[in-house]
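Predict structure. Chain length: 556.
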Amino acid sequence: MIDAVTTDAVTLSSLAGRHLDLVSAPFTLPRSRVLVFRADDGGVRVHTSEYEKRLSDCRVLDAVRVTDAAGRVLPVADVQPHRIAFGVHTDAPAASLTFDGPGALSIGGAEGAQMVLVHPDGRQERHELSATGIRIRIGADRTVVVETGHHAAALDACERQWLDWFARCPRVRDDLQPMTAFCWWVLGANIVELPALGDARAVVPSKIGYVGLWQWDAYFIAVGLRHGAPELAREQLDIAFRFPCDDGQLPDVVHEQGILASSDDLPESDRATLRRAGSQIADPSKPVPLTKPPLAAWALRKVLDVQDDPAWAREQLGRVIRSQDWWFASSDLDGDGMPEYGHPYSSGLDDSPIFDGPIPTAAPDLGAYLVCQDREIAALLDRYEPDAETERFLARAERTQTLLDGMWDDEAGRFLARGAGEDIRSDTVVGLMPLRTGSLPDDVRDALRAAIDDPARFALEWGMPTVAASDPDFSPERMWRGPIWINTSALVAEGLEASGYPERARELREQTVRLVVHGGGPHEYYNPRTGLKAERATTAFGWSAALFIDLAVALS
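Prediction complete.
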């Protein structure tokens, strides 16, 4: 007997399947490193997903074709999270492909159908299909072993795994449920195992090109996961916080081969480039620290609000405090009390025009994040360690707020970043982040609200660009130089709410979810003129999916 939960999960799985085109959204399985894409000849091709490697370097099979008894190629007829159907009719496909565990595919079909495998070296092999099926085992070194399978069992197990995942999908407003289902699929599909960390599960930004746990991504992804999989959300933060440097700095990336915390963790060819682009105040012969903006306490609090765990909270809070202290002790490179970004990578907005000038860069977004994080830390200590002293965090937040207020330029009517002490006049989204503190002077707060409402600057039809449309550096396609990103839009919406504009915050959230629906999915970033995926943006992107879910829940 099928219960109501299973029926609901089947519906949500089917909604997600509408987006599985095998181009922007591949066929894959949680914890698997195998990806299946549509091939030009009507079949599919198979790749592995590997850290810092392109798909073209991870070819497993250039084609998997299904043919009928006459040798005609049977096209892909339908894709659902648990199987690809080949043939003409989706209700009675000639053959189907599914996963048989994370490292193998299973294909079965009607008598007379055949499977043709085309290897990267051009070698072809042909196998007769049957209901029993064939198992294609894929090694970590991309080797292929073909063996007898148990297709019906594999199909059932794969479907059950996905239905269990969709049973946890948040239920939201009817108009947002189809995209929420697809975004929930994205988060499940982007789960990978990191064998070096035991059985750790990282929800990566994308299995296409971003196979690691980036610190900032982990925060945003955890915020979305908490609505249906809070234990997996906690696991993302646990991994992000697990490998602090001796001075408390959190690494930029945790990946299957180690961590990325400084230029010394990169190949030598990259180190020289990073050091040349690095700090003009710090010693260029020393490693350049690489991290991400301080949103750790923000993410920790949001996850704990859904599933409380005082012991775990206290453990993680200690690491968050050390990382916050690192910013002031080791990243205030000019000693003026306001920490700087020592390298663009550490900002999360690597290509923003605020980094076109000299570095290190004192940026208003960093100042705002630091103010908010010190206040978050104090609130978390009150909650989990009521005897702890919180005054130093609150006092530091006030000092940082005063320095942040000093970055306001009355003549320009906006917050200005400073590169090595020089004003950077680019009009970018980082200048809106001080709204998050909720403690700006009224005239400054109102000026930022006016900027967000100005169609010549940030009030574009499809959302808030990362560089004002009136700025000479604005480009609708270049990463962080104009396209809309879901994370910056969500963060500014929180800033609007914190600064006393709840209705405007809701409008921005509605506009942001409308963008994702219009754009066809949770892409990495969007052209603000068309509302569609920017040409070079990654598809099925983790933090866009997670934040869409978080916004959909809030709006519902």
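Summary: The CA atoms of residues 339 and 351 lie 20 Å apart.
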